[in-house]
Design a protein that fits this description.
Elements (H helix, E strand, L loop, with lengths): L1 H30 L3 H14 L4 H14 L6 H21 L4 H15 L4 H21 L4 H15 L3 H11 L7 H14 L4 H13 L3 H13 L7 H13 L3
Helix pairs in contact: 1-2, 1-3, 2-3, 3-4, 3-5, 4-5, 5-6, 6-7, 6-8, 7-9, 7-10, 9-10, 10-11, 10-12, 11-12
Length: 247
C-alpha cells in the first residue's frame, strides 16, 4: 500500500517542481526581451498546469510583448486576441491577483493602439478600472501606478473631439488631470526609480503642469538610465522630444 502511494506521489512531485522551473526560465528570458522563447516555455507550463494564474498572466504578457514585433496587422491582431484571452482567464482564475488585473489593463492598452478613436476611449475605461484594482490589491505594484498616471495624462490632454467622445461614453468627462498624473507617476518612480518609462513619463507630466526644473531632472534621469525594457528606446525618444521643449 505504501509503495502504491509513493508511486502516485512521484508524478505530483515532478509536476510541482517542473512548473516553478518553467516560470523561472520564462522570467529570465523575459528579462532579456527574448519573448518568443519565453512564450514557448510558458506555454509548456500552461500545458502542465492549466488555469494557473501565475502562468496565465505571464502568457498574456509574452503575447502582448510579441505584438510589438508582429510583421503584419493580422499577426498583431491575432496576438492581441490571444493576449486578451490569457489575461481574462488569469483574472477569472484569481480575482485577487494584482498581476492578473495589471496584465489585463496593459493588454487593453496595447489593443487600444490599433483601434478607432471611439474604441480607444471605450477601452480607456477598462484600462483605468483594471489598473485601479491592481493598485488596490498591491500598492507596491509600480506599473499599476504608472498606468493610472498615463491614463490621467492622456485623458487630460485629449483634443476636443476625443473629449467629446469621452464625455459621451463615460456619461461625463472623467475626473482626470495632469496633477493626478504627476501624483501617480511619482508613486511609480518612488517604487522603481530605475525604470526608464517611469522617469520619462513623470518628466512629461511635470512639463504639462509647468514644473520645468522637475521635468528636466526626471527626463534627464530617464535618458541616463540603461535601456532594459523592450520599448525603452522608443520611450527615450519621447523623452528627448519633451526635453527639447525645455532647451
Amino acid at each position: 500500500m505504501k509503495r502504491a502511494l509513493l508511486f502516485l506521489a512521484i508524478p505530483t512531485m515532478a509536476w510541482s517542481q517542473s512548473v516553478p522551473d518553467l516560470i523561472r526560465k520564462t522570467d529570465a528570458l523575459d528579462a532579456k526581451n527574448r519573448n518568443a522563447e519565453a512564450l514557448v516555455v510558458i506555454q509548456q507550463a500552461d500545458q502542465l498546469s492549466p488555469g494557473n494564474v501565475e502562468i496565465l498572466y505571464r502568457l498574456a504578457k509574452q503575447k502582448a510583448q510579441l505584438m510589438l514585433d508582429a510583421k503584419s496587422s493580422a499577426e498583431r491582431k491575432q496576438l492581441g486576441a490571444e493576449a486578451l484571452d490569457a489575461a481574462q482567464r488569469a483574472v477569472a482564475a484569481d480575482p485577487k491577483s494584482a498581476e492578473a488585473h495589471l496584465s489585463l489593463s496593459i493588454v487593453y492598452g496595447r489593443l487600444a493602439q490599433d483601434e478607432s478613436a471611439r474604441r480607444k476611449v471605450e477601452l480607456s475605461r477598462l484600462i483605468r478600472d483594471e489598473a485601479e484594482i491592481a493598485a488596490s490589491l498591491d500598492p507596491k505594484e509600480d506599473y499599476a501606478w504608472h498606468v493610472l498616471g498615463r491614463w490621467n495624462y492622456e485623458m487630460a490632454n485629449f483634443n476636443a473631439v476625443l473629449k467629446a467622445l469621452a464625455q459621451a461614453i463615460y456619461g461625463k468627462f472623467p475626473d482626470a488631470s495632469n496633477e493626478k498624473a504627476v501624483e501617480y507617476l511619482e508613486k511609480a518612480v518612488a517604487l522603481r526609480p530605475d525604470r526608464v518609462v517611469h522617469q520619462i513619463e513623470l518628466g512629461r507630466a511635470y512639463l504639462a503642469i509647468g514644473e520645468k526644473d522637475k521635468a528636466r531632472a526626471a527626463l534627464e534621469k530617464g535618458l541616463s538610465l540603461p535601456s532594459v525594457a523592450k520599448d525603452d528606446n522608443e520611450t527615450k525618444e519621447r523623452g528627448r522630444k519633451a526635453l527639447s521643449q525645455l532647451n
